[in-house]
Amino acid sequence: MSTQKITLAKGLNMGLRKAMEADDKVLLMGEDVGKLGGVFRITDGLQKDFGEDRVIDSPLAESGIVGTAVGMALRGYRPVVEIQFDGFVYPAYDQIVCQVAKYTYRSQGKVKMPIVIRIPFGGGIGAVEHHSESPEAQFAHTPGLKVVACSNPVDGYWMIQQAIAHDDPVIFLEPKRQYHADKAELDESATPDPLFSSRVVRAGSDATVLAYGPTVKTALKCAEAAESEGRSLEVIDLRTLSPLDMAPVYESVRRTGRCVVTHEAHVNLGMGAELAARVTEQCFYSLEAPVLRVGAFDTPYPPSRIEEEYLPDLDRVLDAVDRTFAY
Amino acid sequence: MSDPVSFGPDLADVFGPSQTDGGPDLVQLLTPEGERVHHPEFDHDFSADELRGLYRDMVLTRRIDVEATALQRHGELGIWAQLLGQEAAQIGAGRALRPQDYVFPTYREHGVAYCKGVDPLRLLGLFRGVDQGGWDPNENNFGLYTIVIGAQTLHATGYAMGMQRDGVVGTGDPERDAAVIAHFGDGASSQGDVNEAFIFAASYNAPVVFFCQNNQWAISEPIERQTRIPLYQRALGFGFPGIRVDGNDVLATYAVTKAALQRAREGNGPSFVEAYTYRMGAHTTTDDPTRYRLNDELEHWKLKDPIERLKVYLRRNGLVDQEFFDDLDAEAKELGHHLREGCKALPDPKPLDQFGYVFTEMTDEIAQQRDEFAAYLASFEGSHA
């Protein structure tokens, strides 16, 4: 069994390559994805190996990227488009919510939209405005879209392949802060979990912490810190935001009786609101405390010098955990 | 005081005064009076059969429109987007297509749908509210109606890029080479998506014809609100040719669109056709044009009617007899009957149908919502859910 240590960027790059080898209908398109390999180098080397017809540098127009991807999908292709940064997805918002999300429904299933829209998301990279956002709830709120977020290199490798092979449109969120951060051991012969499944990444018994994308790492650190204080936290990496895979969440919360959700997106009407509602509906008699949410404040993303005061961090999540024990 | 810096020529010198009759570049093969004229670049030797066919197509298309409008007035349709006056633009464009070409329509391309072999009855479903497009786009290479203005021009461009990758462009085999036509209107020309489509198509030399029916009105807004230069001249700025054709002249529209499609199929890239026409009816059946335009204008355009001018030509040249008109009249009546009876028989969707086809396979979440709603409906006595 051969394994190798890879970053998230490498995992995604390898996964894209695998998907392109497996199906010649898979096309990549986006700004700077060709020779440059993308501003984060996720598509590094792919144009060289698969050619300009399959790895397409696009004009600087996000609606154009997604809109032409719709046409390619209608022609039988499986476009994978890269939105350079989260904050630049909005010019394509109309095409995503009105066309990508609705074509299958509009056509009563006669037309498939196997499009993957890759979005580097989240903050913490010291960037200027529009480069650190978390727009996931806007897409999870849209019927017809599936939304997933990877949190680690191994998931990046598998999930991107699964998303490309899937016949419905997938908004694929990549925590950009993690791209070149930690390495993990990839075993390419392993069998991955299904794409639309959440996963317990650390078992615990006192409280459940729900996270996805960039906050999974934060939640795991919290669990370590809590353990030193004698408190056992269970951490669940949601991985899929639409549809949600709630069974492992309900099972966990019924055991722990406490639940904290953390994400980088604004708290108001964020994923945490939906998760809190569902957990409350399904685990009402098991709960020892209300479900608490730890996310960004309901303010625009701030100048980067204070972004660490804006993003949920270890202390704020631990503080919320403490508060669930105060009831 | 010094003179102001010259920033290029005055636009009025370049484009001339406002042109209500299409201007000197208008390609025309049949005048409003039914006079056959010739054009040095765009022409076609129409056989008598072709001419009669085009006439028949326009008459039947108008019949579809008139019947659907009446069905709306009778409460059988929620709304209808009329094409009255635009028959020549649509039939000329529609008949220039080959079976392998693909159409991306707006919501008004009833005549093009008819040319592509879509049963006109299928068009009524979305206006009646029983579906959102009842035909299979891949059966006739006729896409679903797109209601967001201009969005389909990007789909057309992407589809054309797919054709390039499939090797069905510029092979020299007329049975194989294919192109896409993107329909839109003068209002849509202001949309970002349309302008992005122009840029993508030009950048990749995509085999797409941008076919704009400039019917002079975007609901209540006249063409002057969308553009200060003739629309077809915008194409040059994007890097491909633009032609203005008399959109009420089916012969010219056919000839120009045929050339544009051929150019695309041969791998010579996109082009822009501005079919200069007029929306004789309302924007839709919910609109009231008397609030924003003068009757004089309508009367002026009535004299340019696309069907009348071909009728005059056919008669004057002895290409038709009374039997032709009688047969066509009977055919139109039959079509009207088909639409009236068929429309009323279109089945309403069932309450639980709304849960289907959100995805290629129903998710557990949606299945649960469906089941709960089904149980809720079933809780009422005599429920037929």
From TrEMBL, chain A:
Pfam families (UniProt xref): Transket_pyr (PF02779), Transketolase_C (PF02780)
UniProt keyword Oxidoreductase present: yes
Domain Transketolase-like pyrimidine-binding per the UniProt entry, residue ranges: 6-181
Cofactor names: thiamine diphosphate
Entry keyword set: Oxidoreductase, Thiamine pyrophosphate
SMART domains: Transket_pyr (SM00861)
Highest taxon, organism lineage: Bacteria
Alphabetized PANTHER family for the sequence: PYRUVATE DEHYDROGENASE E1 COMPONENT BETA SUBUNIT, PYRUVATE DEHYDROGENASE E1 COMPONENT SUBUNIT BETA
Protein name: 2-oxoisovalerate dehydrogenase subunit beta
TrEMBL record, chain B:
Dehydrogenase E1 component domain residues: 56-334
Organism: Nocardioides flavus (ex Wang et al. 2016)
Domain of life: Bacteria
Region (Disordered): 1-23
Pfam family membership, one: E1_dh
Full protein name: Pyruvate dehydrogenase E1 component subunit alpha
InterPro entries the UniProt entry points to: Alpha-ketoacid_DH_E1_comp (IPR050771), DH_E1 (IPR001017), PdhA/BkdA (IPR017596), THDP-binding (IPR029061)
Cofactor: thiamine diphosphate
Oxidoreductase in keyword set: yes
NCBIfam families: PDH_E1_alph_x (TIGR03181)
Keywords: Oxidoreductase, Pyruvate, Thiamine pyrophosphate
